[in-house]
Amino acid sequence: MASLRRPIFTFTNDEKISDMYLYAVFQFTNDKPEKVWEYFLKEGLGFYPEQQDKPMFIPPGEYSFFISKKRLANPEEKIKEGDCVKETVLTSEETGGLAAQTIKLSAPYIISTINDNPPLVFVKQAHITTPHRLPVKLELIGESDAKAQLTCDSQDDIIIYDVETGGVKIDLPYEIEAESLKQGMMIYVEAKNPKLQVGLDLSPSGEESGTGLKIDCIQVTLNIHKCREQAGTEPAAFTHQEKIEPGRFLHEQDADLHHERGLTVLQEIAPDDFTGKITLYAADSNTGDLVDNLVLYDEAEETPQDGQTPKANPFEIDYTQKGKHTFWLQGNKVSSEMKDVCLRVGAPGLTNEAGKNAYGDEVKITVIKTDLELGKSRSAAGSDPDIFAVADKMDIGRYLHIQDPGHHHGRAMVRIKKFTPDSFVGKFMLTAYNVDTGTGALSKNNPGIELYDDEVAAGGQAAHPNELEVDHTNTFPAEGKLFWVQGKSVSGDLRDRQLHLGIKDHIKTMHKAAFTVVRFKDLKAVIKSTEANTPRLGNSPVLDHDLHIASGALSATEFDVNINVNEPLPLIEGSILHTNPVELSVVVEPAGVGVPVLWAIKRDRRPAPDGDAAGIISLAGNQEAPTITQDGADPLKATCIADAVGTFHICPYIDCNGSGDLDFTDNTGQRIDREPHIIMNYLLFRIKGRQNNSLARPANHTINPANPTTATGVGISAGGFANGAGAGVHSKADVEVTGGGSDGKRGLDYLFGGWINNLTNMNVRMNYVIPGPPAVNHFMEFQCYNHGTGIIGPTMPSAILPAPLHPVAFLALPVLDVSPFGNEGEGGNRAVGTEGGIGPPGGIVKIANPAGIGEIWTIEMWDSPGAGAPAHHSNPAYAGTVLESFVYNLGFRVDLCFWTNRSKVAGHMPDDPACRVYSSVQTNTWEIEFEIQFNINTGVSNITTPYNIVINKDGNATRLATPVQNSGLEVRFPTILQTVIIDARN
Asked: Less CB within 10 Å around the terminal CB: N or C of the chain?
């Protein structure tokens, strides 16, 4: 207990001993004569216990006083003869004239503090509701009835109160009854102004000198600063009122040291000549007990790092080092209530009457805890998204697609957890930043992400303003509050968009999450066309079909599952070979930074009437989606084939939940999520044979004239061209066609069909004789002639004249057999039709399939080939020839083929997929045989091989369509009627 009281005795006759330290021995002569105490004399002010700076008191009584140069070993020793210095031993010079004596002490007045610290009181500050008051005890020891008076030498700088908190002011001078002093009286000193050595004096009434107490009144200021808004700028300080209400918020530090610290500055102490020790300590705001919720770090340790050592609590500052003292305050343990902890400025050993540490300034602190949870994309409809691990929020981050005008893209869930403590009331902030990934610099201007209340984007929704302030009240949802982050502008690098959770002025960033905003564009499909069976005359290579979508400005089209908006790539099931798949590629922005692109094909599973019907999905051999294979070397490329039926979406995408699949809709059509993607709608048709009604009609043939002679020559025709009934061969079949949608009819307007005829065998020969003797034989025969350039040739047989002159190159069979309608064999229906025009004649008869899915198409074609032999050889060089025989043998292959076209036009559209990709569902062959002989002497004819036409239908009338590629069928030019000639050289 620190005491400053009247000295035990005073010197008389101005006897002073200055700058000397002598040992004085007091030997009790009253109740305890054996007790010996050792004191030393300090600067003529009084006697003090050895090694202390505070006077001690001996109860009133009579004492023997000696001055000795010898120190006693301990206070229990008795004075021995020769140990004490007699007045004759020490000279006047050595003692300053002070002689040994016996002193009788009277009862003293005592003014003492209850602290061990030198008397110190902190100046009252307006923002401190309970200012510091220094407890002082006034006492009278001994028997006396005299009143005492309390005075102050600087009473404008202090105020005296009767209690420690509140109470009544005591005006000075203050007269006190002896009885009150005998019982011990407490007063409480409050400082108004900073000043050192303010003196209190307790003296007998009417006397000028008594017991004195010197008090230092100092003013301390503890500043807490707002969060640092920008690197390189100093954070502003809270006002004195703000640092108490609402106080400073800090987030509880985590194991990975993510959370920022608060700048704390102990300002210069007033008066500026104060020297002493000051403490900073973290305490319970209510009890004043030391707590571990807060820790202090050095000025250089703003950024939390491993290996940093916090200051002790309390932390002692030797204020011989003048100026400001700067620290960083960290939340170490979450608060139980608002402002339940504080950082205070005190002094070593300075306590209040209850023994709690006194303080001159404080900052109220609430250590909070919350979280910003970043959701992955959903993996199942109706379930909450999985949450990213803390580190993954920044190390991986969430991918978003820039939102398109049609609002097709998904948003990322952000959940702000309810703050701890539960009583927290305040505002938190959500701020979006663009991040320079090289420097880490943040910019709030035009951030590339924006915040919404709604998960599913739709027209009319307004984005929240950036730096959104949100009230957190006692009614804040226990499960937290959801927000949804949408991509606004494409990133320049991975994770260069961030969302920060903070509290304005308090914590710039409590938690943050990174985002990469991507854009998929230039989705391309290269569809390999059906190649020529025999490359020749410019018919090869066949141009591929290139389908591009999203090659321009961002629009809604390329993300729409509706084929009426985002036109599909239509193909026929089985039309694409594994060896020649559709080649896919896409461009993703930001480019070249390793955006993890995957590929998927998803079936349209929307509820009826939008998605594919169950009857389509359950078709025999159908599968959930066509096969797609990502390029192992370049993830922006893939291939797919046409091995399913229905409506599909080819989607390059980013997997945002680790499922390894594009979680689009579930099998019931319920929306799961919208991971970043782009859509090329993919429509695949099943073509299945139903009934092959093709037949040959030999009876329809004619021989002209009916009784040919060598004078008339001979002509033959398989029938007419007006209709199938009158034709030599009638190709006709019913097929089941199935598209997508609720009835299997979706997209059937992209599908076309017709019979494609090939000449596979041609043995048409006319033999002539020049009668002899000796007889000379000549002949002519039909050939397919290579004209050398282009595909243009005669449209009817013509002789090669003159003959023989030059070598010729004939074309190998098969050769496409169609009528000469222009652009023959260049794609689409330009390979169909032998009736004199583009087929099928009369169009396709379409009816609903009785099974309820798709349609039944009836497609027909007819043909009636013919030829003849003139009476004489066509070469003038062989004049005088007589017709001897005519052989007419032809073989044909005819396939019922299908193709597609995005333009919904059956014809040849060079840039429109996929009119050059043919599939065959039925394959028939048919043949004509006829031979006639002539008697060159009588001219009479004799049919040696009667005319016959036979057809061999496909062995499987209900088979599925298969690729024409590599099947032996020719779908490319040239055609028979462009190349056939009569070779009359021989």
From this structure: N
